[in-house]
Amino acid sequence: MAIALCAVGCSRNTTHSDQTKLEPAQVKVALVPGGPHPYFQPWKDALQKAKADFKLGDVTFNETSAWNQTTQNSVLKSLAAQGFNAFGVFGVSPDTINSTFGDLHKQGFHLASLGSCPAGDTDNADFCLATDVRQAAYKAAKSAIAAMGGSGNLVHLTGNKTDSNTTRRIQGVQQAIDETGGKVTLLQTVTDIDTDLQTAQKAVADLIAAKGAQINGIVTTAYNPAVASAAAVKAAGLPVKVVAIDDDPTILGDIKDGSVTASVVQNPVGQAYVGSYALSKLAGGCTMKTSGQTVDSGSFVVAKDNADTYDTQRQQQTAQLRKDFDDKYLSCS
Amino acid sequence: MRIPFWANPRLGLLVVIVVLVAVFTALRPAFLDVGLTIVPMQSDLTVFVVVGLAQLAVLSLGHMNLAVGRMAAVSAFAAGWAYDKLDVPLPVGLVIGLAVGALVGAAAGWTIAATGVNSFVVTLALDFALIGLVSLLYSTFSDGVAFHVAPAGLDILRGDTFADYCMGDLCGPPIPLVVPIALVAVVAVGVFFRNSRLGREILMTGSNVKAAELSGIPTGRRIIQAHALSGLLAALAGFLLAVNNGAFSADIGGSFLLPSFLGPVLGGTLLAGGAVSVLGTVFGAALTEVIQTGLNLLQFEVEKFKIYIGFVLLVALSLDRLRHVLAERRSAAPAERGGTA
């Protein structure tokens, strides 16, 4: 049909939606994680708090994408069809989510990449509010190396190899190892074990059975391997220093009893709360001073000495993030 | 025995699809939103129809292709590499991807024909090998796990519909530009199995390999050709997904396996081989897509979503089977009574 039309002379019709200024009550925010994962659970409460604090029209949390980019695209379009007009998205595939953001942007929706930024140098969302995963992995590896006494064999347990975030984490760990000038060796990087706890437990058990005696430290940059390695090292009674990620109660307990050295904790609450705030501002007519700006939501090394107090630090970081959006990142006339 | 027209499985599926569309529309009028529902559904459907055809190509033999997703991934890598490193035009990259898919498929077919090992085992092993290969290829040849190149025309193919092209006030329908590519595949595979000698011989091989051999059909070669066709169609599905998603990445094909079986099997293709239904595959894939979109619109929680998608599929299949059994009984009844009715 297009060929037939164009054969006799056609024009390409390129229409862009006009972005209108919305009152907070007209703003409907949808937060869409990549799929079900404990990391996203704090988003639910933070979203409800944002709804009440910023008097948003409606909010929803939808994790049905189940780690499939095609499904996530359908979920986002379905939510848009139902009237949601601002989206905070953890893209399943950092390599392709930018195209989805571009599509939704063209249709006049406001978008934040939350928890994970698209791969590459550009972000078609209005902004990205996420942990700098390379930096967090670097911090975690530095902690593990320090706990090992600055030398020995380190193992890195992480997520999906085909996720560009995993590539960044591997780079962060490698940077910390390189800085030791050869005193620390990366014994192995184990990928694709963050799908569920059972997979992670099996991988860790295999690793300890095969190389337990050689391992001086384990750094985990994904949730399930962190929980699995903490439990396995404790059960085996090995003198292995474990640095975990996030603040699962099990991990916090292990930090307190000394079986886990430290954990690099992220700020999912801040991502959801401040992300919703910034989206409501953008819908209200503000613009980002730099479109696609990346903002680090913060990561904190939690050890025995600050296991009870780190959340205060995280709340301060969240308050600071909101202030930074007002003062530095948003332009509101 | 002739089955009445109302027991035709394709018609049954069409009725179920129409009923579900009506139900979902009644519950959520946004189901008929052109830009946000209808157009994306068609784009997704092109991928699932073609991946269904890729599985159908080997189901015709009574075989399976468990490596359908990884064949798509390897082919998408080849196309992405060609765009990124060789700077080839859009159609040339597509041809390279299709050729790689066909070659990998032919290699699987050759292994099955030469060794006599079950296709299930061969393609499962191939799938494992290709998972590793794809990761290795991307880490060697790209900076990350994807090629972010956009050859001329890719963005247009991805984002435009025929409605974007107008002559005066006359614009095309809201059908994405990728749809004709899938349509060509549907028609070509349909004609191949219905009208070509090669296609008929593949079906005969699937129906009874000994009888086919005794009839002078080179069954080994037909097995290789059917698997090559499967690889080629998997490659096309991978290309369409890469176009829809906007990048040639390592995770392409990761979720192809289940839809590849759902389309043909819902559509009436026999797992035992010897009979295929191309139109049924289109309807089977469409049914799955309608259910998925409808449940998305109803915003089910993730666990309930999976339960309901399984439940609706089961009900759809059971109703279809019930209708078929009733039709068989009705046709058989007159014969038992001596054909007097």
TrEMBL record, chain A:
Principal localisation: other
Coiled-coil ranges per UniProt: none
Taxonomy, superkingdom: Bacteria
Cited Pfam families: Peripla_BP_4 (PF13407)
Record localization: Cell envelope
Family listed: Belongs to the bacterial solute-binding protein 2 family.
PANTHER family in alphabetical order: ABC TRANSPORTER PERIPLASMIC-BINDING PROTEIN YPHF, D-XYLOSE-BINDING PERIPLASMIC PROTEIN
Name of the protein in its database record: Sugar ABC transporter substrate-binding protein
Organism, scientific name: Kutzneria chonburiensis
UniProtKB/TrEMBL annotation, chain B:
Protein's membrane topology: Multi-pass membrane protein
Name of the protein: ABC transporter permease
Listed transmembrane segments: 12-32, 38-59, 89-113, 120-141, 175-193, 261-285
Main location per the UniProt record: membrane
Subcellular location: Cell membrane
Keywords carried by this UniProt record: Cell inner membrane, Cell membrane, Membrane, Transmembrane, Transmembrane helix, Transport
Protein origin, superkingdom: Bacteria
Pfam families given in the database record: BPD_transp_2
